[in-house]
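Protocol step 6 of 9: fold each sequence in the batch and record its structure tokens directly after the sequence line. For illustration, a two-sequence batch is reproduced in full.

Sequence one:
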Amino acid sequence: MTTKHTPAPWIDNGEGLIVSNKGDVATIAAAYDLHNDYTGTEQEANARLIAAAPELLELLEGLTFIAETVAHLRGLERDILPTTDKARKLIARVKG
């Protein structure tokens, strides 16, 4: 069974928490690890990365589709498929 993630956009609220487009806080993700003492700069970088995750997933799916389509049309499957196979496995892992 796969669980859908909270729809994008996710936004760094500037306090190390990621909020959804509906304003839900903390149930999405905390940009810090309570067991580590991250600096504010590292926490901000983590928040930006987490907030971009839904868009990165969507972009990876699109680029993978384009790469496979172009490879098929140009007979380059052997060159491209090892990379797109990795991308597809990552996409599947993220989606559950």
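Sequence two, same batch, same settings:
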Amino acid sequence: MPFCVAIPTTGLMLLALGTLASAGGTGESDWPNWRGPHHDGSAGAKDLPADFSKDRGVAWTTRLPGPGASSPAIVGERVFLTSIDSMGSELLAICLDADSGAERWIVPAGSGYRPGGKGSETKIHNRSNYASPSPTCDGERVLFFFGNGDLSSFSLDGELEWSRNLQKEFGDFAFQWTFSASPTLWKGRVYLPVLQRNQPVGGIGKAGGESYLLALDAETGETVFRVLRPSKAIMESLESYASAIPHVGQDGREELLVVGGDVITGHDPQSGKELWRWGTWNEGHREPAWRLVPSPVTGAGLVLACGPKGAPACAVRLGGEGELGAAGLAWKSAGRRDPVTTDVPTPLFDDGSFFVLSDLRESLTRVNAASGEKEWTLKLSGDHRWRASPTGADGKIWLMDHGGNVLVVDATSGELVHQAAMGDEDEDSARAAIAVAHGSLFIRTSDTIYRVGG
């Protein structure tokens, strides 16, 4: 009996998807990773459905075997996700058919490793479990990472290629909350930053623990490099749950952007060498509890790094060398009372602007990327928390709260275009970013995924 139950919507014809996956590579209309084809939350899709509900305009609905916060990755005719099973003991790698929502394959992908050798329960903190990092696919293979350190590569048909557990190899993670950075699959390599505390947390981890940037060969899973990423931050401020974001400058320089430990750094993707560093939003590293969640986002020659818990958003000039200092900062928001701040959601870059979803201020703000000037702010409902990162496409912004309530916002005016309640009545932990692929929206609540349109 399949874990995943697809419920097709009657009367809606699905268009066959053209795919490049069988020949390798991803297509322009794919959504291959958590932040989409440009690693900034945007897609070039047009004519997306903007009037829908759970029972209108939905191509199919699939109930998943259990909860998770991973965003779907869509490449060709395949949709990839993770979840835990209903008993909370198994980590699952899932592939659905993009046309029908039916299960193509589902594979137990966990090694059973638990930090400190504790138990088998995969739900270890409120509103989180090990199925929070999002999968990533390059059209040849798909990578799944789980918060217990399991990192595995599968063929598109579900055959295991290689698997490693990072905690088992490099030591137990030292995080206050469940580690949830998503892996970055870029140009044949897998990158994952592990920026953690240098002392045990809840009896897990060790004194003198190291933060590092890891790179693996995507085909073999072998280590390419593991470089230390030092910081002067203290205690929880050393922790980061952000992913590494690749960037190619106008001069062709490639770098990986890593944020956490009170600073943002650029690294050579070939060697891991640190090229530059800027910081900090935590002056003097005085605040000990400023763990970082939002990943960096690039646009207009800048990278936006958002300090936590009401700290400013800082736009730093790209292309520098060494310690950038004050000259490296293009602009920053006022922080605290300013809506341009975010504790959890990663901002979006689209059409020359950053869009900052503030879970603290319960607002969405469009910011001119070059100048930092606020163009509009939309106040949001406070019924549920806003922690899923926003998506930009078709001249609109798509966002979802913990209750599975989806908003469609006009990107130019900031006006609310549409809202749809996609969560179950008791939903309060929907945190996946909405994916855009093949003329459709792929909306994942805690344990259900919808394809809207198509």
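Proceed to step 7 once all outputs are recorded. Observation for sequence two: The CA atoms of residues 38 and 137 lie 14 Å apart.
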